[in-house]
Fold:
Amino acid sequence: MMRYLAGRVLRGLFTILLVMTFAFVVLRLSGDPALLIMTVDAPPEAIAAFRTSWGLDRPLWDQYVTYVLRAAIGDLGNSMRDGRPAIELVLDRVPATLAITIPAFLLKIGIGVPAGIYAALHRNSLADRLTMLVSVAGFTVPSFVLALVLVLVFSVKLGWLPSSGSETLAHAILPIVTLGTAGAAVIARFTRSAMLEVLGQPYIRAASAKGLTWRRVVTDHALPNAAIPTTTIIGFMIGALIAGAVVVESVFAWPGVGRLLVVAVANRDLAVVQALLIIIAATMVAANILVDLVYGWIDPRMRTRHPAGAQ
Structure:
């Protein structure tokens, strides 16, 4: 198992390197940041000096090698806008993003898992149909549309909650609800499907035939086995905590990582965009590794599925 996890870590590092390479190449081939930051009216000498100071006049492969070597020791470059380290700018925004994404993540699990279980245990009932109807609606409505509807209802019409900003806890409610709604709908659908598949297995009927109460059959046999596919989708959501907040933070003017990404892309602030993409990729990789560890905890058979010599 340890060798398997070590292999996953190495593949994760390779994935991060691919993301780093893709971001580096695409950002530099999409235009000259010197012309945007300095404007086209700037003297040619000033533009040339800007390119030289940031190393943009060097060959692309030389810039790439230098960037990778510096990134390996934690130096992700400086912002072209204010000269601060890119990683510092990103880390300054992380707490604000986590302030809405973590409660939203807990909301997703707290609503989605029980709703999916209840719908599966009451299959084809009115409650099941209503749960699936709400989950489909929550899944299909784009987050920016839901955000605007919530602002219209609770900020404009009712005046209960602020529509933007981050000064008080009340400012976080609408972003949290927006982020949590779609995720709860997805988890509810996956949990219901996983539970229905498990409830149809022979060992469930065998457990019932042994005289176990239905409650014990569900809690001791159905839930642990249905948790594996549900854990997968929850793991993906953990990895997407930062990336998933881009649209919501922009709508609610929330000063987090997602909004920083939008501003950095618009300003062609290469180092900041690259740092953000690397952190998002690292979060996804860490979430996938965490899911593997949770698999082994939920189902002990997973610990022996990858022997010491497995790659």
Q: What stands out?
A: DSSP finds 14 helices and no strands in the chain. Residues 86-304 form a domain with the MetI-like fold fold (CATH 1.10.3720.10). Confidence is low (pLDDT under 50) at residues 307-311.
